[in-house]
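Here's a chain:
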Amino acid sequence: MERKGEERQMLIAMKGHPGTGKSTLANAVARALKFPLVDKDHFRDCTHTIQQVLMHTSSATATKLLNDLSYEAMWRVISTQLNLGLSVVVDSPLSRQAHLNRLLEMASHSGARVVVVECKPGDEAQWRKRVESRGGGGGGSGWHKPSTWQEMEVLLEGYGGCWDYDVGEVPKLVIDTTAPVEVAELVAKVIEFVNS
């Protein structure tokens, strides 16, 4: 897609649980549109050593503190990109209304248009297979993500349904990321939606 200098700045906010294909789609959309990609997991991946040290206090406290730190770092990078006049693709679960509100606040300062692309797997068995096949643990990338379906169920239960909120006036596209289509076809749908 060709971008003109006068086009309105965009903030494409990906939304969805771990293992839904959100990061795969976010990367492909960012590549196609030539927008910077800001991925919350890139920040969280860097906190493994700190989490190991903090585990001596409280696992739940360490996890919350480092997750909050990851979001704060992500917000700052997004704000910088928007202040530079760049559009951006944001890859995070967007599991809480407060996270969307923070993005909307940042976008309002730069005049960027916000759209939400929610990745929802229509085939739970395929989603489960993705979660369990990507592993986790260790100290590498993704160590903090659910790597079993049981861990996913615990995560979803912990959310208490907070991910299922109304985005209000924000345009939203819901994509079935388990549909038998190529990623390029999903990217085309997102680009068509963003341009509408």
